[in-house]
Amino acid sequence: MDHISRTELLGLAEPGTGPRASIYLPLGRTYPEAQQDPTRLRDALDEAEQKLQSGGMGAREAKRFLEPARNHAASNTQPQLDSAGLALLVEEGALHSYSLPYPCPATVDVGARFHLAPLMRLLVWPVDFLLLTVSGKAVRLFRCNRKEAVPVDLPASVPTSLENFLQETEIGRAVRFQTGVGTGPGGPAIGLVHGGTSTKDDAHVQFREYIQKVAKDMEALTKKEEIPLVLAAVHEIQAIFRQGYAGQNLVEQGIHGSPDEMGTEEVRMRGVHLLETTHSGAVKSALDRYHRAAETAGARDPGTIVEAAAAGRIDSLIAAFGERLWGTWDEAATRVEIAADPSENPARIDLVNLALIETLRHDGHVCVVPQSDVPGHSAMVAVYRW
Fold it and tell me: Which CATH superfamily is domain 17-111 in?
């Protein structure tokens, strides 16, 4: 799956009457790593079974509890080449399985709540987009999703390279013209042949006209598209293209650099990251509001954030993907304690996960993004309602 609704997440966020097991596993994308996925999944289920027993569940009961997940693992032995991660959420009598478009840290959690933080990243995972790579050597268009970049055949009118553009327009060829200036003695008019080149032979003019032609042709081709268009090109091409492209779907920030020196997969992933951090309305809006109110007390303090989330005071919560912060939460006293040594406290919980769930339950916005995109490289930051 490539998306999940808030309604579905809210259902998973409700505390249950019995234990819940959350298993996340990154999947191998190539041979031989992908061949190890079934074994690693069985190992994770064994770990979950041990944790259930450590929590007081009998061996037979723990085995029965995880039976739906084991059956799922047994019937899905082929490598998940179209997915980068797997989430299995198990509760009494039910299994929730999700294929993730991104790799996730391998984790096995057993507790009263599901561990939903890795799954919540789907809420702000980028939409599908068009990727246009432009250089003097090649013009290429891809339709990208969260997993792959599929080449799009360009109409014949679109230049495929600078060389192709020059051939089609005959730019660069010497312009020769003949002018009659009179007649010679007893003969025909004397023809003076003037040799030279037009101003279009100037390399800079040629290149600029080439990029402008690409921009106009691409505008005509994509003007009906509602998905974003990401441009990958060097700075000079970015500037010329944006002057000539009037479509509304062009992402303001492009991928700067030569696409000829980057593989298609690298450019696609840069496009994914660009959309996730700048084009996605939820993330960009939350980051903008955080920076405007960065002096708000407790905006980075985990304890204050958890208390505010439980009280419904958080408008937006931005959390680092894969980051966990252990501690305890006394709901009756609304008191948070950060665990100095989480291994010594069996009652510890992941405070990042708790803050995300509480923010979601109180109709706030949750944004799970890469660590590098969280201000101050914190585990989480908040934008308060009051």
Answer: eRF1 domain 1 (3.30.960.10)
